[in-house]
Amino acid sequence: MGKKAKETRRYNSRARSQGQISIDQTEANKIQVDLKNVDGSKYDDANPLVLPSKKRNTTVKFTAGSKKEKFLSKKQRKKLEKIVERREKKSNRADLVSELQNYQLSAETYSALTPLVKVQTEGVRTLLLENKEVGVESKKTASGRSGWKKSGAIVANKQKFLSWSRRFTSNGQASKNPQVLGFDTDEEESSEESEDEDIPESPGDDFSAVDAPSVDDEKETTEEEPIEEIDLTNSKLSDSPSVDRAALEEDRKRKFENHLGDSRAGKILKKARSKVEENKMKAQEKQSEEEVKMQRKVIHVNRTEEILASRSKLPIIPEEQVVMEQISDNIYVVLAGETGCGKTTQVPQFLYEAGYATEGKIIGITEPRRVAAISMAARVGKELSLTSEEVSFQIRFEGTASSKTLIKFMTDGVLLKEMGHDFLLKKYSVVCIDEAHERSLFTDILIGLLSRCVVARKKRNDPLKLVIMSATMRISDFMENNVLFKTKPGFVHIPARQFPVQIHFSKVTPINYVETAVKKVIQIHKKLPPGGILVFVTGQQEVLTIIKHLQRLCPNTEDPDESVNSNDKKGAWRKRGQKPLKSVNLDEVKRFPEEIEPGSDSDNSETEDVNIDVDTSNLEPLHVIPLYSMLPIEDQKKVFEPPPPGKRLCVVTTNVAETSVTIPSIRYVVDTGKVKDKLWDKVTGVQTFRILWCSKASAEQRAGRAGRIGPGHCYRLFSSAVFEHEFQEYSTPEIKARPVDDMVLLMKSMSIDQVKNFPYPTPPDDEQLQVAEELLLHLGALQRPQGARKGHPSTISPLGLTMSQLPVGPRFAKMLAMSFSHSLAEYMTLLAAAFTVQEVLLEAGGDKALEEKWTAVRKKWTGVGQSALLGDAKVLIRAAEAFEHDGGSPEFCIKMGLRHKAMVEIRKLRKQLTNNINILVENQKEIILNPKLKPPSDEEATLLRQIILSGSPDRVARKVQPDEVSGGEDQNKLKNAYKCGELEDLVYIHHASVLRRTKPSWIVYQEAFEINGKIYLRGVVAIEPEWILVLCPTMCRFDKPLKDPPPYFDHTDGLVKCFMKSTYGKQGWELPVAQIEYPVNAEKYSYFAQFLLEGEVFSLLKQWSNSLLSLPKTMTKSWAKLQPRTQSLLEQLVSAEVDSKPKLSAQWEKNPKYLLKEYLEWVPERLHRQIKSSWPPVESSV
Predict the structure, then answer these.
(1) Which residues 6+ apart lie within 8 Å of 352 measured at CB?
(2) Residue 581 pLDDT more than 50?
C-alpha cells in the first residue's frame, strides 16, 4: 500500500497540480452596465468602470490528475476485442433474423426438396466399408404401423467392422444383425424424426426404401408369409419372389442415379460402386488363385514299408497336422523337441508334401555342422525317394545343389552368404534353422536377419516361413524375446525321446578320464548285451589315444586306418569274426551289471579295479571307428554303415556327434563330461584351447544318443555332485565368446550401420563390438565422416565392400585386396587359404628324430635372403607347391609333416577364392589357378611381407631389448621372448616356426594362443619397423614434422613429404624416422605454395622464380600473413583443397584461370602479359 500511495501522491503534489481558480462575482454582477460600443473581447467579466474595493472571494478547484491508461498485452487486447465483437453480434441478432425471414422459402417449395437424411453424406471410405454386407429387415410395429427401424451404431473402427462382417453367410444374411433395417411403409415421417435416424448406407439404398409398398399390401404379406430381409447393398431385391418387384427396384435406382446426374453426390456414388465391384472381383480372383494353389499343394510320396515302419516310431509323426497348421498360420514358428523326436528329418518332408517346394520355390534347412548337412540330405532323400540333386547339400567347398534342387541342406554360413546377395531369399518358401539351441554365431545372425526378412516378404505378398527347431532347454531365448519377434511366434512341442535312457553317475570323478573311458568300454563289451557304444572325448588326439588302447586290449579289433600286419592275426580275426554275439533281449533285462541300486545316486564301478593289461583273449571283436571334424568325409560316413557280422560297433567321437547326427545301433553312451573350447580374449584376441566341463544341456544331448533304437544307458564318468555344482546350465553362445569382426563387416555390407541395435537372440558385449569396429577402421574397411566423434556410427568403405564379398576373414580379405597393385594375387590367394585352415603342419609329439626331419624340410623350403624372412608364409607356399607336384597323396603329407585333409581344404579354398576374385575384377587381368606356382623372388617376398603387415596392423611383436631386462630376471628365458602391442605378458615364437632360431627383431604374426600358461605365436613373418608408419598409420602416434631435414617435394608422387618421428601401439615403441606424406594442415598448403613458386611442381614456373617480388620461403614464415600476396595465394589453395600436383592439375582442367590472379601479384607487371599467355603452366611438367 505504501508503494502505491507513493506513486499516486508524491512530494508537493498539490503545488505541482494545476487547479482551476474560481472568483466570486456575485457583487459585481448586480451592477448593470450597458456598453454597446465597447469591444468586450478585450476585457474580462469584471465591471470595466467599477473596481472592487476589497479582495473578492476566490476558490481553487484541484482536478484529479489524468489517469494513465493501463498497458494491455496483445493477448488481453484480443480478448477484449472478442468480447466487444460478441456483444455487437448479439445486439445485431434480432436484425439478422428479421432479414432472413425475407428470404425464407415457401412451404410448397420446401416440401418439394429432398431431405438431408436421404442424401449421401458419409465419406467414400466409410461408405465402401459399410456397403459390403448390409441387409434390411422388415418388422411390423406394435401399433400396426410400420416404421423405419433404426440400425445399430455405425461401426467406427474398421477392424471391428471387418471382424463382424465375417460372421455373415454367403447370401449376406445374419440372425442378429445390427445393420439390418426394418422395411417400412410410412413415407410421411416428420423432419424431427428423420433427423434422429442413422444415415443410410448409400443414396441408392435409401432410395429403394422410400418407395416401399403401402401399409395394406404389407399387412397382407405379413399374414401370408414372414417378411423377408432385403439386402440394401444389392441393386435388386434378390430374396423377393416377384420378378416385377426386382424390375421396379432397378427402375427406381436408375431414376435416382439420373436424378443425381453429374453432381458431387452422383460422382461419389458411382466411384463407390465401381470400387465395390472392383474389390469383389479381386476377392473372387484371389479366392480362385488360392483354390488352385491349394490343389497344387498336394504331393504324394511313395515310401517303402521299411521306411514307413521306422517313421511311425518317431514322436513327431502324430504331430504332423499340428506342426503344419502352426506353420500355415504363422510366419515364424518355434518347434521344440528333445533329441530323437525326428524334427530334423521329418519337418522337411512335411513341408515337401504340403507343396512348399512347388512353383519354383525350394525348402532350405541350415545345420551348424557340415557332417549333419551331408548325412541329413542323404537320409531325407532316401525317405522321399528323390535324387541327390533334388535333395541336395551345400557346404563350404562342395555340394550337390543344382537347378533341380527342391530341398537344400546347408551350413548356416552358406545361407548367410546368400542373404548378402539376396536379402529377401526370393527362391525360398520356407527356411528351417536346425539346432538353434547351440547358438552358433552365424545361427544367431541368421535368426536376426530372417526375423526382418519374413516381415518384408509378407508385405510383398510373397510370404517366407521361418521354422526354428530347438531343444526344449532353450526355447525362452526365442519365445520371450520381444526385440527379435514383434509378435509372439507359433509354438509346437514334440514329446521326448521314444525310449528311456537311464543315467549312471560315477561315485568318484577320475582325474585320468581317458583311461577311465577305456575301462568302461571294456566292461560294457564284456558284460552287457549287444548294442553300439558311443564314447565322447574332447579332441582328435584323445580319439586316437582311446582307439590305440582298444586295439591293444582287443587284439582282434580291426585298425580303422590300416589292416593288421600279422597273417596269423588276420586269420584269427576271420575265425572269430564269424562267431555270433550272444543274443539277449535288451528290453527284458531288468538290471544291468553296472546299474546303480535304487536310492543310490552313484555308480559303484570305480570300486572295481579294472586292469587294462588283463588277458582279453575271450573278448569278442570290437569294430572301432573314429569321428571328428578333421576326419575326411569318406571316413565320417563309415559311422552310418552297419558293423561287420559278429562285431560290436564302438564309435569314439568329439562333440561333433552330440547333436543332429544319429548313429544307428547305439545303446550305450560313455560320457567323459569334457569338451575342448577355444576361448578368445575380447581385447587382445589371444585364443586358448582349454578342456572344460560341458554344460548340463550338452550332457542331456549326449545321453539322448542312447535312446534311439531301444532303452539305453548313459555312463557319466563324473559324480552327481560335480554335475550339479560344476556344470553350467547352457553353453555360452558363440557370439559372446569370440571376435565378431567378420560379423560386423558382413552386417555393415548389408547397410546395417547400427550394429548394436540389431535384433540378436543374445546380443554381444559392447566391448566386443567396439574392438571389432576399431580393427575394421584400422584395416580401412570402415570409415567415419570427417569431424565425426568417436561414437559416431561408421559406414562401410569401397574397400570394405570388396572385402565382404570374399569368403575369408577381414584380415586376409585386406591382404587379397592389396595384392592386386603388385600382381601378387596368386601368392596371396594361396596364403589366405593356408592361413585360414587350422593345423596345416603336423607336430612330432615328442619324437625328436621326426621333429628334426620335418624341421630340416621346412628350413630348406624357406631358402635364403629376403625369401627366408617371409618365414612361415614361405613354408606354406612351398608346401602347397610340393603337394600339387606330388599329386596330393597321404603318404607324401606324412613324410613332409603335413595334414592331408588340411592340404585338400587349402586346395578347395584356393580354387573358390580364385573364382570369386575373377568375378570381382572383370576389368583387370584375371588370375589363374596355377598348381605349379613358382617360389616368389626376393622382391616379391619383400612385397608379400608388406602386404601381410597391412592386413595385421595390430599383430606386431618386438623382441625384448637387452636394456628392458632387469638384473633379477632369467636372462636365458628372456632372450627368446617378444612383446606384443596389446599384451603385457611375454610371448614366444612357436617351436614349429622356421623363424624360431633366427629371432628377427620385429615380426608380425597371425595367431596367438596359450598353452600351459605360455603364449605362443604362429604364422610368423619378419618385417622392417620403418614399414609400420606407412602401412599402419592408424596404429601410430606422430610427432611434429622435423624441420631438419626439411620437408621436400616428391616429383614421383607429386606430394609434399616430410621426415617424422612416431611411436607404435599402446606400448609406445619408438619407430625409426620415416619419410611420409606431410599431414594435412595449414603448413602443408604453405609448403606446397613454396614449392609451386620455386618451380618444383611445374618446371615452366622456374623461369620466373628469380623475378618474384618476395622469396618463396616467405610462405612458410610466421609473419607470412602480413603480406597480402601470401595470404591470397594460401586462401585459394585451402579453399579448393589443393595440396598436391595431381589435385592442382585437376583444378586447372576445370578452371584454366585458377591461381593466375594470385600468381601475378608475385611477379613484376612487365611479366604479366607473358605469364597470361602461358597459363596454366602444365605443358612441361616434371
Answers:
(1) 299, 301, 363, 384, 406, 407
(2) no
